[in-house]
Amino acid sequence: MSKSKINNVKATENNSLLFKFIFAIVILIVYGQTLRFGFVLDDDLYIVKNPTLQNGISYIPQTFLHGISEHFKGSNFMGYRPITMSLFIVEYSIFGLNPTAFHLVNLILYFLIAVQLFYFLQKLLSNYNSYYPFVIVVIFLLHPIHTEVVANIKSQDELLSALFALLAFNYFIKWNHVNDKKNLILSCLFFLAAMFSKESSIAYIVLFPAMLWLIFNDTILSSIKKSLALIMMSCLFLGLRFVALKDVFQGYETSARENILYAAKNINEVWATKMEILYHYFFKAILPSNLSWDYSFNQIPVVTFSSYMPIVSILLCAICLVVFVKNLNHNKEVSFGIIWFLILLAPTCNLFIMNGTTFGERFLFMPVLGIILILTFVVKKFLHLDSTLSPFKVNKYFTYGFILIGSVFLFHSVSRAADWKDNFSLFKSGVISSPNSARTNVALATEYMNKAEKEMIPQNRNSLVDSALVYFYKTVQIDTAFSDAWYKLGLIHAIKGDNIKAVEYYQTAIKHNPKNVFALNNLGAMYVSLQKPDAAYNCFVQSFKADSINEMTITNLTVACSLLSKNEEVIFYGNKAINNKIVNQKIYLNMANAYQKLNNLQEANKYQSLANTIK
Q: Residue 602 domain-assigned?
């Protein structure tokens, strides 16, 4: 090897080390603050209150046989993500419920993604100076749309999916260059791991042959043939997922509250609203402002084609198509950027498959790379840059633009990441960014109510109650059929001591959802305090029909039956509880009292003794 080539290799290696150091610093500057954050949002569902994690590392093989929500009745999410769940189990087994450790894992995964993305871009842009991949990775790391994924522990599924997918691409490119079967096997395994981390990773299967065709100049047929092993991996994944989830009962159906498309009444509204949602994905990818954890009913409303957003979205799609075709022979990286963005967005943007949410920033985590690729090459062409030279050395405007965009993104990402500190700050920011979402309003109202219940100073307590009421009332103005919001309105009025209003709102909650167990139980309890045992009994029976193994319901039923001297029913419901391994002192005491009234002293003494063992 010549001396000049040796020097070039050393310079590249030194740059690579420097770049990795900069990636780490960028991540720490933006997301180092998350190490002080707690569990928020769905972290409760998947980590804090997930009994699967308590089974320990030995349970990991079992995660491949079940959905990720196997322990949660009524979930509308039948996910199959065994590697994500396995990682949660490992973290819990080592660190317990220490959020700092979980957040640290997020940062490590994000750094590994940055490194693998840099390697991927170096291979993809082999004729470009290494500073181009560096610039793209830095902008990617700083992009504010990523704050939801990196700052939210539950989103380790997105991070794992991205990391494994990039590893799959890197080994696939190696195999394509040197035809070493070991690299193909590793690529297949990493692609399978990406799908096991998050199902939407299956969309990458389109990008492997697309990359060979667009970037490495293979024919379409040859590109597909070379991708056959990966296609087989996707089929294997779908088969395993089907086996794991085929017996899962989806007890909760997605409604317009989660996905606005369920409120569309005709084909005009359906497709106009779909294009409106796609418009928001385009907009947030390019101008990531007013970010929120939720965009559900009615932040993004149902529209028709008389609205401008669907039309703009269609025009953007048309422009993408024209640019894609126009750059097939020159600047193929632009065409690849377009297909990368649209293909990775396809499974989650509601355009072809309706999912459980209207819009989610996390769904842009990897697709946004396509937009960054496109914009980088638009700038390169506009400034007439030589791709073989460092853009920082040959054009000061590129440097100024990079510093400007980087600084804006840095400031916005640091600020947005801070919102994920806890539920209260997250929900408060959500109401600001998504003021028309019923879920953002009810979430913040609930946080105020929870704070009010813990507050001991009357003046502060009243202030918190008033704040909660403001957002509860706003919630039911946005979504008049939101049963849980009406129930919580009843709850907050009960806290205030306004029983008349509490009863009214509990009744409204039940009207909108006759199976609202919480509203039924609270209304029943209210009737007990108002000395209306018959009305209370009817509420508890209705609640039992809705959920026959709810401890609160069965306990309340034994109380109401005892008040009404329905002694046989006390014993019936008490035995129901015991058969379902629901035991508490109240149930035993009511059963003891019922048996005593039926002159069965032996059983009465038995259950009195059992009650005495529970403190």
A: yes
Euclidean distance between CA atoms 5 and 9, whole angstroms: 6
Q: Assign residue 452 the CATH number of its domain.
A: 1.25.40.10
Cβ-contact 242, 75 below 8 angstroms: no
Determine the 3-state secondary structure of 582 from DSSP: coil
Longest Cα separation, the chain: 104
pLDDT given for residue 13 in this prediction: 59
Cα–Cα distance, 285 to 341 (Å, whole number) = 10
First to last CA, the chain: 81
Q: Which residues lie closer than 8 Å to 333 by C-beta, 6 or more apart?
A: 124, 125, 215, 373, 377
Handedness of CA 94, 98, 100, 106 (dihedral sign): positive
**Structural domain of 526:** 423-613
Report the domain count for the chain.
1
Extract the residue ranges of the chain whose pLDDT is less than 50: 1-11, 73-76, 251-252
d(CA 423, CA 449): 13
- 240 in a domain, yes or no? no
CA geometry: angle 567, 572, 573, nearest 5 deg: 100
Structure tokens at 250: 């989806």
Please indicate, yes or no, if residue 171 is contained in any of the structural domains. no
> Which of 109, 192, 119 lies closest to 156 in space, CA to CA?
109
Examine residue 519 and state whether it is found in any structural domain, yes or no: yes
